[in-house]
Design goal:
The complex is a heterodimer of chains A (262) and B (175). With 262 residues, chain A is mainly α. Chain A contains 9 helices and no strands. Helices cover 73% and strands 0% of the residues of chain B. Chain B has 7 helices and no strands. The chains are: A mainly alpha (262), B mainly alpha (175).
């Protein structure tokens, strides 16, 4: 078994385990596109392996081209899903149909990245390889830009991330930055052994991401901490909401009479 | 040279990503007590109103409030305290036990909305202040933020007075 086939096999096992864990943790209900993306990665890796082993390189080239396009579409869906998921705490104050706006904004960012990515496509590549390189680089930059915007906006507005979203974002973010670094280095070197080493390094980082997700999704979400009725009422008062009818606090002591707060 | 610059940018991104990840993780595991401790204690908003912490609403002009806020320093303290209030809302939604009385999601939404409005008002005021010093627009935004802030602080005081009198002095001192 070569190093490449070893990494591929480990990646397939990792994807299968991540997908199984996602199903067990009901990830399908909260992050459906991400689940679909993992399932697609699993299926495409297995199919790619079979095509490469049993058919010509030409056919594999065509298969790879189609696979990259579908992969990019799914990545776009995952980015939109993650962004929308992060906006959950403020969704009620957003206008209706804002979810579509999120996807449109990401598509516009991708369109803006496309000409930028042209600058670093190596001239020696064939037409098909050049398009593939361009597409991959565009998505590498787009993923990093999206994560940068999501992270900085969530810090600025102090929006919290749920555990699973944070785990997914950590894995994707790490892989995206590694992918961007490899793309940058690729754009400055000719084809050869060193070029392939970088691809292998990227595969290892993908494997690292899979391993992180396996451990994260296998672990139960952190235990809930104490949240007493008094704490609940603190929040109710801070939010300025009317006490009556807002929540059922049957075991709370009756509210003493006091001056009405505006 | 261009390659080195690109690598430096990617390295900086990686560093920022790591820091952000760490801060998000810290946020999700912190305790209620540590949240209360994060309220800024080196700046007090007690000069904002005659009965700050005991009564909502501000009876002062925008100029007065700007002076009482101590300019951008007070704005920044309110910005940070609003973050703590948002984290309190997150803590509440994360730590509700099944079977216990549940907080109405609307309550949390309102709290988040108030705290976020304070942060946005403060950011706008600070941005304008950086460009044009203390103009009327800056003072109006500062007044809005201060008004919402005193309202939230007064409601919190009322609750502590009724249900957690032991920690009320600490809270009053912190605010």
């Amino acid at each position: 078994m070569t190093f490449d086939s070893g990494i591929l096999s480990a990646g397939v096992v990792g994807e299968a385990v991540v997908f199984t864990l996602l199903l067990r943790r009901r990830g399908w209900s909260t992050l459906p596109f991400f689940c679909l993306y993992i399932l697609y990665s699993l299926a495409s890796d297995v199919t790619g392996y079979i095509v490469l082993a049993k058919h010509s390189e030409l056919l594999y080239g065509r298969y790879y081209f189609t696979q990259i396009i579908l992969d990019s579409i799914l990545q776009f869906a995952v980015l939109g899903e993650l962004a929308w998921s992060v906006l959950r705490p403020v969704r009620s104050s957003l206008p209706r149909g804002f979810r579509i706006v999120v996807y449109v904004l990401i598509a516009l960012a991708g369109a803006a990245m496309w000409p930028l990515a042209t600058l670093t496509v190596p001239p020696a590549l064939t037409r098909l390889s050049s398009i593939l390189f361009h597409l991959q680089e565009t998505f590498s930059i787009l993923r990093v830009v999206c994560f940068l915007i999501m992270a900085s906006l969530s810090q600025l507005l102090s929006i919290g991330w749920r555990d699973r979203e944070l785990q997914v974002a950590t894995g994707l973010g790490f892989y995206s930055i590694a992918s961007l670094l490899v793309t940058v280095l690729h754009s400055h070197q000719a084809m050869g052994t060193q070029y392939h080493w970088l691809d292998q390094a990227l595969s290892v980082s993908y494997l690292g991401t899979m391993t992180y997700w396996v451990f994260s999704f296998a672990t139960k979400e952190q235990e809930r901490k104490e949240f007493s009725p008094q704490m609940q009422q603190l929040l109710v008062l801070m939010s300025g909401g009317a006490r009556t009818g807002r929540m059922a606090l049957g075991d709370l002591p009756p509210e003493p009479k006091r001056k009405r707060i505006k | 040279m261009f390659l080195l610059l690109q690598i430096a940018i990617v390295g900086a991104l990686l560093l920022y990503f790591g820091k952000w990840r760490k801060s998000m993780r810290r946020r999700s595991i912190q305790s209620w007590d540590s949240l209360l401790c994060q309220l800024r204690s080196d700046w007090s908003a007690r000069d904002l109103g005659e009965q700050f912490l005991w009564k909502e609403g501000l009876n002062a002009t925008t100029d007065d409030i700007w002076q009482r806020l101590d300019g951008p320093r007070g704005l920044w303290a309110m910005f940070q305290n609003a973050r703590v209030m948002l984290e309190m809302a997150d803590y509440a939604s994360r730590n509700q036990f099944p079977g216990t009385p549940q907080i109405d999601p609307m309550v949390l939404e309102t709290l988040r909305s108030d705290a976020m409005q304070i942060r946005l008002c403060v950011l706008m005021a600070l941005g304008q202040y950086a460009l044009s010093q203390a103009t009327e627009g800056v003072k109006v935004n500062a007044f809005r933020a201060a008004n919402m802030y005193t309202g939230m602080a007064a409601r919190m005081t009322a609750l502590l007075q009724d249900h957690a009198a032991v920690i009320l002095p600490d809270f009053v001192a912190a605010m």
